[in-house]
User: Which sequence fits this backbone?
């Protein structure tokens, strides 16, 4: 499965990584290698097979809907790259 | 006093008999780490001050004549994927170069509660993406048996630390080989738990449906001791099982009469090194002598394991690494002019090649139009793998095979080879996809391409929740063999 440069650019935009031109070319080759490698999977007959996403058999593990006190707010705010008055500071969205 | 390579029980004895203090024990390993880390690059961050404070607490307890637990005062290393409060945690990535977690992983709390002493954080493949520790943004770690070779990965730093006698045990994680393969390549013991046996809370996520925090250590008995401490239900990880943790250590068997062992023929792959193959057959013979009934079994879907993994893993990675966006923590690009810049440039600057590769592969596999062909298909084949293992465990109690088809290759082998990990871990991945527990234990040496004798690992796979069975097989083997007592000369003097 060969990816085009446009495919790679689209992927990089979706996953928010700004690749250089050299990287686009490099990853175009490498991703195509991986996709070739997995293409053999199509050979396996999965007619009527339900997918499995996790093997524990657990589902919908709930806790009581009771609010709890935050314990480490200060420590979290401490590691914000930029902050002001206990608020996270980022570039404007508008 | 030579304290390296002593078992947890032996160290515990010394503490109880006051032959050594917890402070001296910590200082001994800290000194040894300082002596050898420039050669091995096993540790990225030390936590000496914290270690000595914790050791002092244990010593005070001993001085008061109080009884101490088996792990109290025992030093250990933690793979730099475990969040450790106040101690830098990087996941071996530049994007977390200065990240200091505001909390401890549940498993780290388990170690603290047991009184164990953390020496520092060890090197790994960046975000655990790899099987050689070469994708680390801080340089590769080196195999203590031959420092021109890889220690394996992704838990290479932890494996190198234990194999070089720098720590009695180390925390590690496995998603598809990252405990078993480095254990095999470094000639030490590794335990990958049943998925859901050990809490993932606070362990930086890679493949949420597979990640299994475990242990690298010097003997199966030590793995059993630490397993009792690591395992258990955690309300903060809703994939942990509400199942009691057995007394693994107390229950250990030394004979295998009546135990049925299956040898899967598909695991003797073409291209397996002859030295590895010979050691595995010799080990199997040893298990027969211990009373096990050994039969050949067949797992025809084995070769598809790595393919399933190559889709599912990057897909989950693309989700899990979306949080590294330069907003709340981690690297934020200083050149960013607007919000999109923050995202795209921080991630471009902070992630290494393999992380980018996997994020992009996953993004593609999950994107509209491709989801069915890739991710959905892979998860269907995964169910077939789960069923295949479940069926075979109706016939046998454990499976035995090689942990890795080869001994440690030279550093540089994995470079820019996007398939390296998938091929290196092909004997580990199928079991991982099914969430099964497994061990790797040393079973001898095999010749590398240039004739250097390097460690070979025996893999023991159990059914879901079958920790006791695999510990039994491994422990019995270690009563009649001493491969696990062989250590690299360079670090055992």
Assistant:
């Amino acid at each position: 499965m060969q990816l085009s440069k446009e495919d790679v650019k689209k992927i990089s935009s979706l996953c928010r990584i700004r690749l250089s031109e050299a990287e686009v070319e490099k990853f175009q080759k490498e991703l195509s290698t991986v996709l070739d490698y997995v293409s053999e999977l199509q050979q396996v007959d999965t007619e009527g097979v339900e997918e499995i996403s996790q093997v524990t058999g657990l589902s919908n593990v709930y806790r009581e809907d009771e609010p709890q006190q935050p314990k480490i707010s200060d420590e979290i705010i401490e590691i914000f790259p930029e902050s002001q008055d206990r608020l996270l500071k980022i570039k404007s969205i508008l | 006093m030579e304290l390296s390579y002593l078992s947890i029980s032996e160290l515990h004895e010394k503490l109880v008999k006051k032959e050594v203090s917890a402070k001296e024990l910590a200082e001994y390993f800290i000194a040894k780490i300082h002596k050898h880390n420039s050669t091995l690059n096993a540790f990225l961050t030390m936590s000496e001050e914290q270690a000595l404070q914790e050791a002092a607490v244990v010593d005070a307890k001993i001085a008061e004549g109080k009884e101490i637990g088996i792990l109290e005062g025992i030093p250990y290393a933690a793979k730099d994927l475990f969040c450790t409060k106040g101690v830098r945690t990087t996941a071996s990535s530049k994007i977390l170069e200065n990240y200091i977690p505001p909390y401890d992983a549940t498993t780290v709390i388990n170690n603290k509660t047991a009184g164990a002493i953390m020496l520092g954080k060890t090197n790994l493949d960046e975000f655990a993406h790899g099987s050689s520790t070469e994708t680390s943004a801080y340089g590769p770690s080196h195999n203590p048996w031959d420092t021109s070779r890889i220690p394996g990965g992704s838990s290479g730093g932890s494996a190198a630390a234990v194999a070089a006698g720098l720590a009695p045990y180390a925390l590690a994680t496995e998603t598809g080989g990252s405990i078993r393969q480095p254990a095999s390549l470094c000639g030490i013991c590794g335990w990958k738990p049943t998925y859901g046996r050990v809490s993932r809370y606070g362990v930086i996520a890679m493949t949420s449906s597979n990640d299994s925090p475990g242990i690298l250590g010097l003997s199966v008995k030590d793995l059993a001791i630490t397993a009792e401490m690591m395992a258990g239900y955690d309300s903060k990880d809703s994939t942990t099982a509400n199942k009691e943790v057995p007394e693994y250590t107390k229950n250990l068997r030394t004979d295998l009469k009546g135990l049925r062992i299956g040898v899967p023929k598909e695991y003797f792959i073409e291209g397996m090194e002859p030295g590895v193959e010979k050691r595995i057959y010799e080990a199997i013979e040893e298990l027969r002598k211990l009373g096990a009934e050994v039969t050949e079994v067949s797992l025809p879907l084995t070769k598809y394991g790595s393919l399933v993994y190559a889709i599912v893993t990057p897909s989950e990675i693309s989700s899990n690494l979306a949080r590294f966006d330069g907003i709340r923590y981690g690297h934020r690009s200083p050149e960013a002019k607007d919000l999109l810049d923050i995202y795209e440039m921080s991630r471009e600057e902070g992630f290494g090649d393999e992380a980018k590769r996997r994020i992009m592969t996953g993004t593609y596999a999950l994107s509209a139009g491709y989801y069915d062909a890739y991710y959905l298909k892979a998860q269907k084949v995964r169910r077939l793998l789960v069923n295949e293992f479940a069926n075979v465990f109706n016939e046998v109690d454990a499976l035995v095979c090689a942990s890795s088809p080869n001994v440690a290759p030279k550093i540089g082998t994995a470079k820019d080879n996007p398939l390296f990990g998938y091929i290196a871990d092909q004997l580990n991945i199928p079991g991982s996809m099914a969430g099964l527990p497994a061990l790797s234990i040393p079973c001898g040496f095999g010749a590398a391409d240039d004739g250097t004798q390097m460690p070979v690992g025996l893999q023991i796979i159990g059914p879901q929740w079958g920790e006791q069975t695999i510990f039994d097989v491994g422990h019995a083997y270690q009563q009649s063999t001493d491969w696990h007592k062989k250590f690299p000369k360079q670090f055992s003097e």
